[in-house]
Amino acid sequence: MKILKTVSIIVFIAAVILFGGYLLKEKAGQDHTGPVISMESDHIEVSIKDSRDALLAGVTASDARDGDLSAAVCVESVGPIDGEGRRIVRYVVFDSDNHISRALRTMSYTDYTAPVITVTGPLTFPVGTVNMLQGVSALDCIDGDISDQIQILYDDKMNPSVPGIYPARLRVTNSIGGYSELPVSIELYDAAERGSSQGNGAVVPEAGTTGQVVVTEGGTDQNAGK
Ligand SMILES: [Ca+2]
Fold first, then answer.
1. Residue 103 C-alpha to ligand 1 middle, in angstroms?
2. How remote is the CA of residue 30 from the centroid of ligand 1, in Å?
3. In the chain, how many domains are there?
4. Ligand 1 midpoint to CA 65 (Å)
5. Which of 46, 84, 102, 120 is deepest in the core (most CB within 10 A)?
6. CA 52 to centroid of ligand 1, rounded, Å
7. Residue partners of 135: CB distance under 8 A and separation at least 6
């Protein structure tokens, strides 16, 4: 029994020593610094047709323990486009000790154009019309048809049940935050009045009186801050 106790104690002490040694070895081998991301330039230009990987051009990373980690760098996020047509790209890389390093730079497109709003007829409607975007469409170089994103922003108070001419802006925003605005006039008329004045009760707007047929090529630049 005494022998068994002694053996147990010896085994326990040996285990403690082994575990302590393992911890010391682990600690000595650890690298407490994260990788360092380097970039050839702090701004990059790409095409709207390029994949996300194009944003990694000229980006490298190295780590004191892991060495070259360039292949492990990822694009974490790309921010919205600003008034100068720039977006902020955020890069991230991990090392084998799970340290995270991040870096930022700006990007712009060589071939970006702001969305184009097209109005194909006068914006003249009888009072009570729900959809006043009939004949209005928007095309974007990145998203394609974004007609369903068009908003009407009225410059003054608008009462949909009161006939009148309302100055407004058509505004459309694409998926990266780029937008265009087109100033228009929206006319609401009393269908009964206009119908009787024409003698036949038909709802026929006087085409072209106040509606506008305008095709614009607004840019984020020219529209910024408006
Ligand atoms: Ca490291």
1. 16
2. 8
3. 2
4. 5
5. 46
6. 26
7. 119, 120, 121, 123
On whether both 96 and 184 belong to a single domain, the answer is no
Cα(94) to ligand 1 centroid in Å equals 8
pTM for this structure? 0.70
Q: Please say which residue of 109, 138, 156 terminates a domain.
A: 109
Q: Residue 185: which domain range?
A: 116-223
Measured in Å, residue 37 CA sits from the centre of ligand 1 at 12
Coil, strand, or helix at residue 152? strand
Instruction: Read off the pLDDT of residues 135-183 as tens digits, 9 standing for 90 and up.
Output: 999 999 999 999 999 999 998 888 889 999 999 999 999 999 999 999 9
Residues lying with their CB under 5 A of ligand 1, a single-atom ion: 31, 63, 65, 95
Does residue 212 belong to any structural domain of this protein? yes
Which segments in the chain show pLDDT lower than 70?
Answer: 1, 26-29, 195-226
Supply the pLDDT for residue 199.
36
Tell me the CA distances in angstroms from 38 to 63, 86, 92, 101, 187, one per residue in order: 11, 20, 11, 11, 57
Ligand 1 centroid – CA 32 distance (Å): 6
